[in-house]
Amino acid sequence: MARADWPPERLRRALRLYVLTDRGLSRGRSEVEIVQAALAGGATAIQLRWKAGPLAEAVRAGRALRELCREAGALFVVNDRVDLALALEADGVHLGVEDLPLAEARRLAGNRLVIGFSPSTLEEALAAARAGADYLGVGPVYGTATKADAGPAVGLEHVRQIAQAVSIPVVGIGGITADNARPVIQAGATGVAVISAVVAADDPRAAAAALRAAVDAALAGRA
Ligand SMILES: Cc1ncc(COP(=O)(O)OP(=O)(O)O)c(N)n1
Ligand SMILES: Cc1ncsc1CCOP(=O)(O)O
Ligand SMILES: [Mg+2]
């Protein structure tokens, strides 16, 4: 069961524009700078995605991001690590097939964390929903160079299949920009998750605003 302060409709709205941090792509700008700009542009969820460097530094960055998200009313999620998510009092944790199994994460976190999961297949998506995942991140929808082991694009049909099969929200991820976000929503996703389109942008605030406008327009067209 998810956190009481993120009931299903609030969570669904928070997953419209989900921005993940990536220090390697941020062109020397800090996580705080990027996240401030992303939130100002309309990001509704932020994920601290920390793949290298001292954990103590992740804690420092995470504390600052948690405060920014609280002020903005945005969902704050930590990638991969339940311990870090709990230590930061994050809203959630995002797990993949190579991370701590969902059931273990739920056992450790109870209802203190929203848990997101990235399935590779429809079967994994159904199993994750049964095991108590609160949302799914499905991708890479389009080709991406950001995650070396992401594999080839899964395509829009895969998003559609999973979104139809589960009742929890699905966000599309991988190679998404303001120009190609619309079909992802039309395929049934609640929102889109991005890294390079915002983190590596010349103007991350404007990039987030363009993405948010594209998602909102597509959601309005679907209603
Ligand atoms: C929202 C969202 N969707 C998918 C992922 C990918 O998770 P994972 O497969 O565990 O890969 P890493 O991000 O850990 O490299 C995600 N992080 N967020
Ligand atoms: C973390 C992740 N999981 C699947 S694709 C991907 C990378 C997304 O990055 P980008 O938005 O730059 O393609
Ligand atoms: Mg992971």
Automatic annotation (TrEMBL):
A Gene Ontology cellular-component term = cytoplasm
**Keyword field contains Disulfide bond:** no
Highest taxon of the lineage: Bacteria
What pathway is this protein said to act in by its record?
Cofactor biosynthesis; thiamine diphosphate biosynthesis; thiamine phosphate from 4-amino-2-methyl-5-diphosphomethylpyrimidine and 4-methyl-5-(2-phosphoethyl)-thiazole: step 1/1
Q: Which residues bind Mg(2+)?
A: 80, 99
Q: Which InterPro entries match?
A: Aldolase_TIM, ThiamineP_synth_sf, ThiamineP_synth_TenI, TMP_synthase
The cofactor remark states: Binds 1 Mg(2+) ion per subunit.
Q: Which residues form the Thiamine phosphate synthase/TenI domain?
A: 17-198
EC category name: transferase
Q: Which positions are annotated as binding 4-amino-2-methyl-5-(diphosphooxymethyl)pyrimidine?
A: 47-51, 79, 118, 147
The residues the record assigns to binding 2-[(2R,5Z)-2-carboxy-4-methylthiazol-5(2H)-ylidene]ethyl phosphate are: 144-146, 175, 195-196
Q: What are the required cofactors?
A: Mg(2+)
What's its EC? 2.5.1.3
GO molecular function per UniProt? magnesium ion binding; thiamine-phosphate diphosphorylase activity
Q: Which Pfam families match?
A: TMP-TENI
Reactions mediated catalytically: 2-[(2R,5Z)-2-carboxy-4-methylthiazol-5(2H)-ylidene]ethyl phosphate + 4-amino-2-methyl-5-(diphosphooxymethyl)pyrimidine + 2 H(+) = thiamine phosphate + CO2 + diphosphate; 4-methyl-5-(2-phosphooxyethyl)-thiazole + 4-amino-2-methyl-5-(diphosphooxymethyl)pyrimidine + H(+) = thiamine phosphate + diphosphate; 2-(2-carboxy-4-methylthiazol-5-yl)ethyl phosphate + 4-amino-2-methyl-5-(diphosphooxymethyl)pyrimidine + 2 H(+) = thiamine phosphate + CO2 + diphosphate
- Describe the function of this protein: Condenses 4-methyl-5-(beta-hydroxyethyl)thiazole monophosphate (THZ-P) and 2-methyl-4-amino-5-hydroxymethyl pyrimidine pyrophosphate (HMP-PP) to form thiamine monophosphate (TMP).
Family listed: Belongs to the thiamine-phosphate synthase family.
Q: Supply the name of the protein.
A: Thiamine-phosphate synthase
